[in-house]
Specification:
Layout lengths: L2 H24 L8 E8 H9 L15 E9 L18 H5 L8 H10 L8 H14 L14 E3 H11 L8 E6 L2 E9 L19 E3 L5
Antiparallel strand pairs: 1-2, 1-5, 3-6, 4-5
């Protein structure tokens, strides 16, 4: 009889410890990060892999989407990132997230990106989204990815070289090409906290192999 409270107490302590550990690994302190990752989704690739199954509006014929803003993510030098940081900053008003619709697929994505990543920047929502827009608009699309010039397949080195030619100051170490099943899904560009190009940390790497399939625009 005397062992039951001890066992129950040990189990409760173990559960609390696990919950605390999970909260710590999934959290972070706002403003405590080393650099940003500008995540740019190749919309046709995302549609082929995920969006078509969801009947996403941006995947309809004639949508014409190419590179779109996925998010601006605080990142740690040694890998990993803070997320869902505690903050007293108010959430973005609806007109602010709706105002990102020209470069982001949906207002729902904009709100999600703020809740998961934006709060960890320690910037108020208007400043965070302004920084994300500024970073996005600084990246020039290479000719190879413009409408009517799209190859079906490129080497990863060739894709990076195209971006370097179009964007002065960018280096191959500042770009990661991300695929799923060999299809281009995302480009991740590493930036300083002042939004200047820099080499990526250990957690941001290519994963496509030597070449990548580039799905055409809708």
């Amino acid at each position: 009889m005397t062992q039951c409270p001890l066992i129950i107490g040990s189990l409760v302590g173990l559960v609390l410890a696990l919950l605390q550990s999970a909260a710590t690994s999934a959290g972070g302190r706002a403003g405590k990060f080393d650099y940003y990752v500008l995540a740019l989704s190749w919309s046709p690739g995302w549609c082929a892999l995920t969006g078509d199954a969801r009947n996403a509006p941006e995947c309809r014929a004639g949508a014409g989407r190419g590179l779109v803003l996925h998010g601006l993510w605080p990142e740690y030098e040694s890998g990993g990132w803070p997320e869902y940081c505690q903050t007293r900053l108010p959430p973005p008003p609806r007109d602010l997230t709706e105002g990102m619709a020209d470069i982001m697929p949906s207002t729902a994505l904009a709100r999600y990106q703020w809740a998961k990543h934006g709060v960890c920047s320690s910037l108020p929502a208007p400043e965070y989204f302004a920084a994300a827009r500024q970073a996005f608009e600084r990246i020039k699309l290479p000719d190879a990815l413009k409408p009517g010039r799209l190859p079906a397949r490129m080497t990863v080195r060739g894709l990076k070289s195209a971006f370097l030619r179009a964007n002065a100051g960018l280096t191959s170490r500042a770009i990661a090409v991300v695929c799923t099943r060999g299809i281009l899904r995302e480009l991740r560009i590493c930036l300083t906290r002042n939004l200047e190009p820099r080499a990526c940390g250990t957690g941001v790497r290519d994963n496509c192999g030597d070449s990548v399939t580039i799905t055409p625009r809708r």
